[in-house]
Give the backbone structure.
Amino acid sequence: MLKRISCILSFVLLSGLSSFAQQTNTSFKIVPLGVKGGDDESNLSAYLLAPLQSDNYIALDAGTIHAGIQKAIQRGIFKGSTQEVLKKQVKGYLISHAHLDHLAGLIINSPADSSKNIYSMPKVLNIIRDKYFTWDAWANFANDGEKPQLKKYTYTPLEEDKSQALEGTEMTVQAYTLSHGNPYQSTAFLVKTNESYVLYLGDTGADEIEKSDRLKKLWQKVAPLVNSGQLKAIFLEVSFPNEQPENQLFGHLTPKLFFKELQQLQQLTEAAAFRKLSFIITHRKPPIYKEERIKKQLKAANDLNLKLIFPQQGRMLIIN
């Protein structure tokens, strides 16, 4: 009898461990280092992403690095010094476009950083090489461009819709071009660990404003992952409140345009699967009253009852 009970308990324990392993293998942790667009240099777009059971992070954009890591240390997320976290736990950078509010932290912190890859589309890497990592502007910490090349960073070009391993992590990425004030471009990154994904969009305008089909194509690409439950979260920007004139959007979204775009994705997916997605709202621009207005307008118009997440600098998010 005791032997039978022992077998049952072992089965229950193993089943629980299997369920836990399955959950952790499909979960991500996100540490926002900066969440805003605009002019607050201490809190600009940058998110560290890793599988839940790993400390090997990739940075999704790099507007603010040092101040964001400091904030996360203060909140108990990281141990050690800011420089130790930067050198040892940030394994590389995915840069959506070369605007400074998505890049300044990488540039400024380059002297204190360790060797790693900068992943981006070739046009973006060319701007970083020719405009920022030059000896007139800063110093060339990369492996290409003006000489002498300090070779701390390796430019790693991405190809549209082609999977690329993210060195030093358990993740891969696929890149997709976005329209950010046509003809200017940004990038979406579809990041995978095991069989789970998150989708990060850099700055983007709505298709109807941009006279583009970039978002339509992206929604068509990820819709099967929504239906299968593999896509866990979408980072999507909302930079301005609805009162912003269309001719002054500069390749960004409002709450109204945010929901219009997501209705396009909803039409391609099953209702139950779509409702499971988390939507992380990025790039709200100061001043603070406009940030609050954006949040209020998003909540008021959330007829789809979406899971809207408003990230805070230095506060970890767990996405299952």
User: Anything to note?
Assistant: The radius of gyration is 20 Å.
